[in-house]
Structure prediction request, 207 residues.
Amino acid sequence: MWGLVQDGSITKFINNPKALVIGDVRYSKNIFSFRWTNAEREAIGIYEVEFDNTNKKDEKWYNNTNQSFAFAGGKITASYGSATPKAHADTTWTQQDSDDGDLPSNKSVGDIKVRGLKYNLIKTIKSQAAGELQNTDWYIVRKADAGTAVPSSITTHRAAVRTKAAEQETAITNAADTPALETLYTYTEQEDGSVTRPLGELPRLES
Prediction:
């Protein structure tokens, strides 16, 4: 991506090589090829955009700003502003919403307005645990239908899944804010070379 700078201001962005007119001169798209050096392009006002992602954060946890473009120090830089953490808790409809006429007719003050990260993360944990338990549900059905005992290893595994899922839900519920939630899900390498996250993993049945 390039930008055209005229009189110290960015006047156009070029996403793909193409012919263009600068002043009274028409240039072929070859000006964007290796035949031209950066210095030669800059001499006619074309600068390659440099991307600064310093402030960009994981969109699972944060709302990033739009990129802003600036020309300074002989280069065009695209950068982000400060990211805003997504709400970790549910938000509700308030009396102010009602006073402003924003409260939907089918909602009341105090009803859920937007679900927060915690709700959605816990919903995912429940789904994952249900999926893991489903793999061994047939043992339970067989016992109910035919009276065949469920192997102790299966009973132990199902109990471990429920226990771990409950632990994960508690950890999520107790997280103070969005950065704390992100930390729970962040994998890091341990001294033994393993890669783990504070939240841990649901037990998986070995085949």
